[in-house]
């Protein structure tokens, strides 16, 4: 299924057999010449290699600033827009899809962004090994695959184990912002986030769309057809 962002995702999901979040094996997909060139030329500047040591954000970005972590940025249009709207913050996006990585690198360079970095790896392993506890100012998870068939619901990304891990990486007062265009998944997200004791809802149920999250053309098309979009914003106690 495609999300409102119009991008077919290789989603992360929780694997109960291993009691952890798994991601699909990275596939190259259809890589355009421009995307391949961006990875070759811009990768050394904007990509962070996977490592089993915590990142020092001050060194990575060359400054002290709040850092936002995004899981699954797809083709990167929304990520680039948010980074450009908030130059005072640092952004690290994690994605396994190679064309998406190349596209965000291309957009980052075109917009002259200095506050965007990219990691191409399993987000769970990145969180465990590269992100120190209580180090993030925020987390974005926009339109993850809804796995809309009931028998596949267990593969959804937003489940208790990942939410607990994300919460452990947040500073006090930091936030998790999730968005979905699948109502049944929104209900599950609300339940899972509400059950994490270290988080509190910033709204009475679903939140208004924060101004920093742009409405994509695919989302806008869905809204015109009467399709809903649900945002959830929870804060670290």
From TrEMBL:
Pathways per UniProt: tRNA modification; N(7)-methylguanine-tRNA biosynthesis
Binding site for S-adenosyl-L-methionine: 70, 95, 122, 145
Class of the enzyme per the UniProt entry, highest EC level: transferase
Residue segments, region Interaction with RNA: 151-156
GO cellular component: tRNA methyltransferase complex
Protein origin, superkingdom: Bacteria
Catalytic reactions of this protein: guanosine(46) in tRNA + S-adenosyl-L-methionine = N(7)-methylguanosine(46) in tRNA + S-adenosyl-L-homocysteine
UniProt cross-references to InterPro entries, sorted A to Z: SAM-dependent_MTases_sf, tRNA_(Gua-N-7)_MeTrfase_Trmb, tRNA_methyltr_TrmB_bact
Binding site for substrate: 149, 181, 216-219
EC number: 2.1.1.33
Similarity comment: Belongs to the class I-like SAM-binding methyltransferase superfamily. TrmB family.
Function: Catalyzes the formation of N(7)-methylguanine at position 46 (m7G46) in tRNA.
Protein name from the UniProt record: tRNA (guanine-N(7)-)-methyltransferase
Organism: Undibacterium fentianense
Lineage, broadest ranks: Bacteria, Pseudomonadati, Pseudomonadota, Betaproteobacteria, Burkholderiales
